[in-house]
Design brief:
The complex is a heterodimer of chains A (117) and B (114). In chain A, 0% of the residues lie in helices and 49% in strands. Chain A has no helices and eleven strands. The N and C termini of chain A lie far apart (37 Å). In chain B, a hairpin with a 4-residue loop joins strand 8 and strand 9. Chain B is 0% helix and 54% strand. Classes of the chains: A mainly beta (117), B mainly beta (114). At the A-B interface, strand 4, strand 5, strand 9 and strand 10 of A face strand 5, strand 6, strand 10 and strand 11 of B.
Chain lengths: 117, 114
Amino acid sequence: EPEVTQTPSHQVTQMGQEVILRCVPISNHLYFYWYRQILGQKVEFLVSFYNNEISEKSEIFDDQFSVERPDGSNFTLKIRSTKLEDSAMYFCASSPKGVASPYNEQFFGPGTRLTVL
Amino acid sequence: AQKVTQAQTEISVVEKEDVTLDCVYETRDTTYYLFWYKQPPSGELVFLIRRNSFDEQNEISGRYSWNFQKSTSSFNFTITASQVVDSAVYFCALGPFGNEKLTFGTGTRLTIIP
């Protein structure tokens, strides 16, 4: 069964460093998302991406964040200068909306745990 | 504004008992979707169900059932004959029609005691 994959599973970085989190969405999906979950808290929407541009972003998604689909398969989240409070689990998701289904049914990857020291 | 409330922070039941997880939502939209996701100890988010606001039929899938009551803005999830493998955090989420953002509740940690 197709699934969303994410790499790395765990990333440790120093405060102020740039990190890139990688995701491979399900191949025929057109909508892509990033969410984050600070340890023990709820899952929060960061950004959605469709047709090579951001379709919606939350107030969390400030200038330090960017997303890119550099090729036909990868979808990346870049944090330019990490802060301690960026430590969280980051989930990528993709949706078949508009392809196999009109519904926004999001399938999540296993997550990347980011630890900022 | 969208809001999802899961008032039960933690629930523990003995194996084989039935358990219901509550979810109450707020939205001004007339058309929307509701979801349940399971987060096992390994951390991933597993999609369980999607329900459309215009379909109030309850759904059963094996030991899982969902009760959608638009009049009370609730979308409750029941596990019958619980098993240890059901131990996880369960999230309810709301997604407006035509909008990409899912709003999650704070989750309910369910522990099944063998």
